[in-house]
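quick one before i forget lol
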Amino acid sequence: MNELTDCPPWADSAASQRLLALCAQGEGQRVEFKERLPSQGHDIGKSIAAFASSNPGLLLYGISNDGSVVGIENGHDCEVRDQVSQRVFNAAKDVRPPVHPTVVWAYQDGKAVCVVEVERGVEAIYYSNQRPILRRGCTSRPAEPSEVEQAFRLRYSTNTEAETLPSTRQIAERMSSVLKKMNKNRLEPLVVSDLALAMGFCAPADLEAVLIGRAPATFELLDRFCSRFAVNKEWLTTGRSGPFYPEVEHRSFPEQYLSLIDESNCDTVYAVRSKSNVGEAFLVIESDPLKFWMLPDVWHVGDHVGGSGARDLVSLCGLFTNWAQSRKPYMVLGRYIEPALAESIWNGQTYPGAIAGMPLSHWWDDLTDLDHKWTSRKGSLKAYGEQFVAAQDIIRQMRARE
């Protein structure tokens, strides 16, 4: 068929001539196929907003995903074409800021195709249904916050080499600081490629670009980073809290964490106690050599406790007894550390894995020796101090009342 002579009067001859070539070319960054007009106006607006945010593009309504011309049903009818065109214009008006596309009709083998041409807008980003939308390859999708930031930077900066805006730069700095903290006192320092491999990246450069602030971090990447290395997501995105502050849900008593630990498929549990006068104790879980995480509670192993603290001591002793008397698929190791380091870990400032290479301590299983059958009272006083023995006395007295 000769499109120039056989096109009906309502069909645009130029669009009709280009149609088969566009169908053969397939969908991409500048072309989107839709077999029919979406029923929801915001779905139409999403595609329009994507091209307005990213680059000029064509929406072809009446073309299937494989490029076949199916046409708009009853598209030869003037009223149908007017209704379709009006719905496109209404959807474009609902985009924020509003967009003004061009709508023409193409004709092929007796079928009518609606061709919507969208220019790249003058604004940095366009919104549909209150969400920022971008075009990426064959997909029109909501933009990540960092992508919105990048769009504004690229749109309004007069310097093409301008630095990234604060949030992208700060997230990059925080991610880099995690690597530095993980490497402190490590005999063989980790490099970016180690983290990238652990996160499942094919190319280390993908992660490195984010760590140096040259590429924005997506929500998906942040989730993977936080999950893989037990990093606090609130801290990573906002700077609040601490980089390793635990996000595990609090439980009322120490023994209630046993099922969580058993189900975590961990390698090692570290029972850590501070050498301070209060004797703060907490648990660090090693899932693998790159993932250490802490439970959210700190218990006082001493006589600086009230009624609830005393009950915590009894429960903590019960947890330790369970470990001492049963076989677990993970190891339980003790650490008895300096107060400053202990506080820095439970506040989430220091990488919990820092305790892995420290000297072994048997304080946790010695705590269960309430009658001093294998360690004398004098030996416990010498090894762990008066507060430790006082905690044993409290546990023994509480159990006697049960």
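fyi The radius of gyration is 32 Å.
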